[in-house]
Write a structure and sequence with these properties.
five-stranded antiparallel β-sheet; Phosphorylase Kinase, domain 1; alpha+beta; binds zinc ion; 663 residues; Aminoglycoside 3'-phosphotransferase, Chain: A, domain 2; eight-stranded mixed β-sheet; Rossmann fold; 3 domains
Length: 663
């Protein structure tokens, strides 16, 4: 007996040799490599991401060298990160802490694609059923789950039959991530009617206290008014028109009417009510559900206000205008719907935290946002205090957070160090609640920055950063021999593992020889004057700083200590601050430019000479520290386990190497 039902008549399916069999309608359903094909068109292929033959070769490689390596090879071969970026990272499931039924619940991931959400959900729920109409994608999801040792994942193909092949009241949560709008494309009938029937069917497999989580565009998203193309039709303004007029327009442009219906908030509410799941909560997912950065409860004015706090008057004015209309004009929704109200995991977690650390005070969630390292940050307040919770979305992010906790402990243990003076928020707890790790700390003071800080603001910030790094250096420095010895040693410490990474990835070029040559010439060039080691943050960039005031007049907190090193070299953090953040040119190009600027002692490198003076290092040594910075960064990049595109290697490693050999 199988857990699956017949997708045509819902009768029990039975094991029959190589496949499954319905005794009612005598249909045999094949099982291909462990994936039951419970669809009519078993040859369907969703070709919007990669062509079928490419997907098949990725599948073949996935079984040989692992799913991640297969995706990496694909990206490296075609020089395009698109498919890798969309499908590899579990960080796509940044919405998952908005779900109920954590740990015990059974999930259906309907339209699982390449399995990024499936894997992430499998880490938090007791079982995940993942399904896609494309057999190759279902197969890829299955391979991924096996290779990640997630035995609580079952994958099957379905999507073009009347029924979902699962029993009534079977799952606690259904994820419909970017799927609902596509459903009428493959089924006949009036599009809204098709969508209602589809939602009814989801309602059938849902337990009475279960929930749907639907991510989808807002028909009246602000972007569409500004002329952004509608994602499904690739036409401008089409979703803003009345349906009839939109059809005429689409008929004229594309030769067919619009079937990929999206709706307004009230439209989705009516649709869900018609399908019998009438308790509906709306989240706004910004900038889009495809790669969410912020989630806002759209009925929660305080949460909207918190998300729109800005310091510049221009942005304040914009917010004043946006605030009242945002709940209706946000680009994407995350819709939580059921027959009864749900309790998102973060609400439950916030209550747990308030009970444990704040004497059971009333607690309120104020912000929910996701950073680029795969960590969701939740800000919560009680009448006494404001907290920040950090929740890793995948094992890699969890390791990084654990490292940061340990690093802060080590930093604090250094004699004479005060975390307060170094503006490091001290963690309150690093724990697990209902199977999910979280880091609890006080909410750090100040305003966050992204890495794209412009012009004058960057200048101001740079000089604050220089002062901060002098303090970090002074409070952690230890004498350790001559600069000649120290620099030569550090080049080997970072450079030899770099050469090892090179070999392991099958990259050409005798990098080890070059590293040893550079180490030799640096050893000769560096004076015998006394040197020292000091602690470095390791990823010191604007995105990891909080500041006060409009013009970043003070650094109020330094975050994300996951790359900290207790005994490294001065200058490295400062160089990273100057060369790290985005901008037009590539990172390697910026390193080379920085080298030239340092050697010509141009005005914009004054902060480096000031720093050198204050930590008492002769300025002639400065370019040598830049070489060490470059080698360390190359090592971190290659260790980061993402595809290395040829042009990135060329720009980041080969070009700077040539410049440094000339030094
Ligand atoms: Zn049947």
């Amino acid at each position: 007996m199988s857990v699956y039902r017949c997708p045509e008549c819902l009768a029990q399916l039975w094991d029959a040799g190589e496949g499954l069999r319905c005794t009612e309608c005598s249909i045999e359903y094949p099982v291909a490599d462990g994936v039951p094909l419970l669809s009519r068109n078993r040859d369907y292929y969703y070709g919007h991401e990669v062509p079928r033959d490419v997907m098949r070769s990725i599948l073949a490689r996935a079984t040989e060298v692992g799913w991640k390596r297969a995706l990496t090879e694909h990206a490296e071969e075609c020089g395009d990160m698109g498919f890798y970026g969309y499908s590899a990272s579990e960080a796509r499931a940044g919405f998952k802490f908005l779900l109920d039924h954590f740990q015990q619940g059974v999930v259906l991931d309907y339209g699982c694609g390449s399995g990024a959400n499936t894997l992430s959900l499998a880490r938090n729920f007791s079982h995940v059923f993942a399904t896609d109409l494309t057999p190759e994608r279902a197969q890829f999801t299955r391979i991924r789950a096996c290779q990640e040792n997630l035995s609580n994942v079952s994958v099957f193909c379905c999507g073009d039959t009347k029924h979902i092949p699962l029993p009534d009241h079977f799952v606690d949560v259904v994820i419909v991530d970017g799927v609902l709008e596509w459903v009428p494309e493959s089924r006949p009938g009036e599009p809204s009617r098709v969508q209602i029937d589809f939602l009814k069917e989801l309602g059938r497999v849902l337990k009475p206290n279960g929930h749907l989580f639907i991510t989808i565009e807002n028909r009246f998203g602000a972007g569409y008014f500004a002329g952004v193309r509608e994602e499904h039709t690739r036409m401008r303004f089409v979703s803003l028109l009345p349906r009839g007029l939109g059809d005429l327009y689409s008929q004229w442009v594309r030769g067919k009417p619009v079937r990929t219906y999206t709706y307004s908030r009230s439209g989705y509410r009516s649709l869900l009510q018609a399908a019998g799941v009438g308790v509906v909560d709306f989240w706004g997912l910004l900038p889009s559900y495809r790669l969410m950065e912020k989630a806002l409860a759209l009925d929660d004015q305080q949460m909207i206000d918190e998300a729109l706090t800005e310091v510049t008057w221009r942005k304040r004015l914009r917010n004043l205008l946006v605030r009242p209309i945002l709940p209706w004009m946000v680009g994407s929704f995350g819709i939580l719907a059921g027959r009864v109200r749900s309790t998102p995991y973060i609400e439950d977690l916030a209550r747990h935290v308030a009970k444990t650390y704040s004497a059971g005070d009333e607690v309120k969630i104020l912000r929910y946002w996701q950073n680029s390292a795969g960590v969701v940050h939740v800000h919560a307040s009680t009448p006494r205090k404001r907290y920040m919770l950090e929740l890793p979305l995948h094992p890699g992010a969890q390791r990084r957070l654990a490292a940061a906790v340990e690093n802060i402990r080590q930093l604090e243990a250094i004699e004479g160090v005060s975390l307060k003076k170094l503006r490091v928020p001290r963690p309150i707890a690093w724990e697990c609640y209902r199977g999910q790790a979280f880091l609890l700390g006080p909410e750090p003071q100040g305003r966050g920055l992204n890495d794209q800080v412009s012009g004058a603001a960057f200048e101001e910030l740079l000089s604050r950063a220089g002062e901060y790094l002098v303090t970090l250096c002074y409070t952690t420095l230890r004498r350790a021999g001559s600069w000649s010895e120290i620099l030569g040693q550090k080049i080997r410490d970072y450079g030899l593992p770099l050469a090892e990474q090179y070999r392991r990835r099958g990259l050409s070029g005798d990098i080890e020889k070059h590293i040893l040559q550079i180490a030799d010439s640096v050893t000769k060039a560096a004076s015998l004057s006394e040197g020292f080691l000091c602690s470095i943050h390791g990823d010191f960039r604007p995105g990891n700083l909080l500041v006060s005031g409009d013009r970043a007049s003070e650094i109020t907190a330094v975050l994300n200590w996951g790359f900290f090193e207790m005994q490294s070299l001065p200058f490295l953090d400062l160089f990273h601050f100057m060369a790290g953040p985005g901008g037009q040119s590539s990172w390697g190009g910026r390193v080379v430019k920085l080298l030239q600027a340092l050697r010509s002692e141009s005005a914009d490198t004054g902060v480096v000479r000031d720093y050198a003076k204050q930590v008492n290092v002769d300025k002639s040594l400065i370019p040598l520290f830049l070489i060490v910075y470059w080698i360390r960064q190359c090592l971190l990049r290659l260790q980061a386990d993402v595809p290395q595109l040829a042009e990135v290697l060329e720009e980041g490693i080969s070009k700077p190497l040539d410049s440094f050999r000339a030094v």
